[in-house]
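Morning F.,

Quick status update on the modeling queue. The single chain you submitted on Monday has been processed. Sequence for confirmation:
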Amino acid sequence: MQNAQHILKKYWGHTSFRPLQEPIINRLLEQKNVLALMPTGGGKSLCFQLPSLMQEGICIVISPLVALMEDQVKGLQNKGIKAMALTGGMGYRELDTALDNCIYGNYKFLYLSPERLQQDLVQERIKLMNVNLIAVDEAHCISQWGHDFRPAYRNISFLKDLKNGTPFIALTATATLTVVKDILKELALEDIEVLKDSFYRENISYNVSIAENKFNRLKQLLKNKNETAIVYVRSRKASLEIADLLNKSGYKADTFHGGLLPKEKTKRLNDWLENKNHIIVATTAFGMGIDKSDVRQVVHLNLPESLESYFQEAGRAGRDGKKAVATIISNKSDIPVLKNQFLGNLPQLEDVKLVYKKLNTYFRIAYGEGAQTEYNFSFSEFCAQYELPFSKTYQVLQLLDRCSIIKLSKEFHKKTSIHFTISAKQLQYYVDQNQKYENFVKTILRNYGGIMENKTAIDLAWVCKKSKLDQKIALKFLKELEKDQVLEYVFAEQDSTVLFLVPREDDSVIFPLVPYIRQHNISKQKKIDSVLTYLENDSICRSKQLLTYFGEVQIENCGICSVCQKQAAPLTNELKNMIYKEIMKVLKSSETSSQELFKTINFPKDQVLEVLRLLIEKELISIKSGNIYKINK
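Structure tokens below.
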């Protein structure tokens, strides 16, 4: 490995490998196939980048997200290594030139999505490339039981025939034993070796904090205003609200969500990476492939949909090896919200049959016809025409896409977008002077939080229905408002395109999906149950719970999570004094119950009860009827 050590020092500045990196590199240099299971921040990308640099030819990297690809390509280019990514906006000529450069231009790395890999042009040019290694990043996307399943990932194995004899490496940081088996089955590679490093992160304290007022608890956690943190929320509106509250409390915070323009995303990400803003309040897609080592806190203000996604997001803390904290802040209202959001709209067989039938009727596709035909598709109009529920219909279309019945375009989420360019006061004055716009404008403002600050996608058909306006009149209003410099807008006449992949045969197309629909729904239910079990289990080390979920055994308690700290912490005089001050602070504001004290004070329940008992003994406080505590005068 002398050559490997030299390259490691030259390009990465390290003198030694992290655990498992060296054995993986050795196997690949021996032309063997590898499935590598490594923790988030464990240095997965180096495992395929370094051996590729040691050999003639180019490494093809299959990756699920553009942001992840661009981040790794930029990192390689900064090291003076020739790398490129085939992103979605490339035209035919640009793609043609890029692929030629990979054949003749001494490029070492070609990053592309699994969908891009399906193109005939791409496959033909790969045949001509001197490929020394094929890397499949985020390999859990291959498995239908993985938390980020991508249908196109299941077609990657054809590369073994396209480039016979080229070694494969598949990598993931979040795979249960079931997912690992499915990855191996789908890749269908001979003599693939599974190399696994423990997912244990000894420097991360995993905590669950129960709090009625989540924002107050968040501020308690973020005591050091100069520390880097990620706060995960479920919606764009929540990201705007929490960032605003943090900034008003003296923090430097910014938001990151899907509604931002690409330039704005880049700026906000760079501001955070350069510590111009210490806190990023983001929706859950943020962070994939983002390697910032000094994140001290990752806080979830909403429950994650699976332990896989939580473990990956929490793992973005403490990549420098220093102490870091990952906390879920929760209360009782979270559980029904989680179940409704992720289980309430799970499609059943009857839902799939109905939507598929209506979809064919919508485009007037006859039985036995429609294969490989593509149509512009307005999702909102489709749902409105057949009175279909939005959320469940969307889930059905996604399921049909995953099962290769239809293919939805990448622009499926594209909607009409609006950005008000004047202040709220100016807008109110304008509407007062131009009453005909009042109902339309107020409907938008009531239903789209943050639209005054950010360009926001709206469902125009839904807004028209709510405001009882014809869409032609709504578009006329938008044009007039833009002319008066009240707002800027982009009208998306169609949400997306839909490509029918198979001929219409209602029963013979849908009934084979029955086992998948059943198993998909069971899998979703199990993932939610696992999250709730993790949330409620305050007797087993949290790190141990997570690692057991991923199939690790013989695990010792971490000693630093909220469960371990509660079990280990003696009630010292100093600790008693801290709890006493917190209790008195609450009771000075208002008389309250023990249950409310437990929710408000960030200390274990048994310790709070012990201090309450001592305060009653000393007659500093007393209990009224209804178990209400009050300060004695």
